UniProtKB/TrEMBL annotation, chain A:
Residues 1-170 form the FAD-binding PCMH-type domain. This is Xanthine dehydrogenase family protein subunit M. Keywords: FAD, Flavoprotein, Oxidoreductase. It comes from the Bacteria.
UniProtKB/TrEMBL annotation, chain B:
Keywords: 2Fe-2S, Iron, Iron-sulfur, Metal-binding, Oxidoreductase. Pfam families: Fer2 (PF00111), Fer2_2 (PF01799). PANTHER family: OXIDOREDUCTASE WITH IRON-SULFUR SUBUNIT, XANTHINE DEHYDROGENASE IRON-SULFUR-BINDING SUBUNIT XDHC-RELATED. It comes from the Bacteria. It comes from Geodermatophilus sabuli. This is (2Fe-2S)-binding protein. Residues 1-78 form the 2Fe-2S ferredoxin-type domain. GO terms for molecular function: 2 iron, 2 sulfur cluster binding; metal ion binding; oxidoreductase activity.
Length: 286, 156
């Protein structure tokens, strides 16, 4: 096995193109587990931790361009106001040790349906910026990024450069079910973003389908029911119906962490609560 | 592969390091520092916690090559010439050590917390130690130890 340690983005893309057998590693919280347990023996490790620009975030128009190598700990400390949904999700990742190393780019690279960053990225309408030496950079809407369990549109010669997350125009929420607060792989997760600027609702479902996914029909329903003009209260029946429609958008399975039935039930509860909390936040802000 | 890294303030050189090897293996098996413990090898238990450039990390999840040119502090680097680190002393006095396997990781995490938050609340202590598992103590004595170390540190 080789250890490739580029210090520039150009060198990293060149190495990615030259070594299809290389496995990219950043925080190592997924990759090292596979190596430690003999599950993977790549021809090389492509270490991305020496590339300074991957560890930066910056404002990019109405969005935050979050470098793929920014650890969760910095999402929490730096971006709680601009990207509240993603910051809430970041707080639920693993433990302090994991949050010091794990990255949103790594979550996308692994593309696990249980990754905590995915639901808030979906709810916010984020775009993933990927790049290759041959074709340069392209931006993929995050909802189109995931193609299957631990699969994505990332080509073999591409690396994830950044994720562009629109800055929150309204309240956001993130909910996650697990056996304890820390060190939990989500049994199910749900993120919600209110977009009062365009009278729209964003959703993201985690751990309840082969990929992270939105609940578009539920989004349209809630956006149509909310009293955007005078910001009247959200009727309990509407919140409950929204929850049911979110649950209906999932395709959960039974596995060691929970049953399909429980995942659907918990999604309905989380979506109802998230909608109520977020709408109440918006009303208070008015 | 050659790995040159600073461990507990001293530059260390290790040769013939396998590129897929973890920082934990490097520390324990090549550099003779068995303080960080090898248990779950998947970041679940916290018993291998060390500081990497000042950040608490699970050494089992850091590739050895990622530590090249970086600064690592292990539990062996906490105690000085004048004896135990105050967190270690508090662990001894509070009865926070039983089998001792989780202790190095907990001591590193607790010292990290007290360096950042001199008077932590109980929820802050619990959050800081959430990634460190102990199967003996039931955690109460560990919380007592962190509170004891914090109270001494806060004294002028």
């Amino acid at each position: 096995m080789d250890f490739l340690q580029p210090t520039t983005w150009g060198d990293a893309l060149a190495a990615r193109a030259e070594r299809p057998d290389a496995l990219a590693i950043a925080g190592g919280t997924d990759v090292m587990v596979d190596l430690n347990f003999d599950r993977r023996r790549p021809g090389a490790l492509l270490d991305l931790t020496r590339i300074a620009e991957l560890r930066e975030w910056a404002t990019d128009g109405d969005a935050v361009r979050l470098g793929a190598g920014v650890p969760y700990a910095r999402v929490i400390t730096d971006l709680g106001t601009q990207l509240p949904g993603l910051a809430m999700a970041a707080r639920t990742v693993g433990s302090p040790q994991i949050r010091a190393r794990g990255t949103v780019g790594g979550n996308l690279g692994s593309a696990s349906p249980a990754g905590d960053a995915h639901p808030p990225l979906l709810a916010a309408g984020a775009q993933v910026e990927v790049a290759s030496a041959a074709r340069g950079a392209r931006r993929v809407p995050v909802a189109e990024f995931y193609t299957g369990v631990k699969r994505s549109v990332l080509a073999p010669d591409e690396l994830i450069a950044a994720v562009l997350v629109p800055r929150a125009a309204g309240p956001q929420q993130f909910c996650k079910v697990g056996t304890r607060n820390a060190m939990v792989i989500a049994v199910s997760a749900f993120a919600l973003a209110l977009h009062p600027d365009r009278h729209a609702v964003g959703t993201g479902i985690g751990s309840a389908a082969p990929t992270p996914r939105r609940a578009p029909e539920a989004e349209e329903f809630l956006a149509g029911e909310l009293d955007w003009a005078s910001r009247g209260p959200l009727p309990g029946t509407v919140a409950a119906e929204f929850g049911q429609r979110v649950a209906a958008a999932a395709s959960p399975i039974d596995d060691v962490r929970g049953t399909a039935a429980y995942r659907r039930h918990s999604l309905a509860v989380m979506a109802r609560r998230a909608a109520t909390w977020a709408w109440d936040d918006l009303r208070r802000a008015a | 592969m050659r790995v040159v890294t600073t461990v507990n303030g001293t530059e260390q050189v290790a040769d013939d390091v396998w590129p897929g090897e973890s920082l934990l293996y490097l520390l324990r098996e090549r550099l003779g520092l068995p303080g960080a413990k090898n248990a779950c090898e998947q970041g679940e238990c916290g018993s291998c916690t060390v500081h990497l450039d000042g950040e608490p990390v699970c050494a089992c999840l850091v590739a050895a090559g990622q530590a090249i040119g970086r600064s690592v502090t292990t539990v062996e680097g906490l105690s000085g010439a004048d004896g135990l680190h105050p967190v270690q002393q508090a662990f001894v006095e509070a009865g926070a050590v039983q089998c001792g396997f989780c202790t190095p990781g907990l001591v590193v995490m607790a010292s990290d917390l007290l360096a950042r938050v001199p008077r932590p609340t109980d929820p802050e202590i619990r959050e800081a130690l959430a990634g460190n598992l102990c199967r003996c103590t039931g955690y109460e004595k560990i919380l007592d130890a962190v509170r004891l170390a914090a109270s001494r540190q806060a004294r002028p």
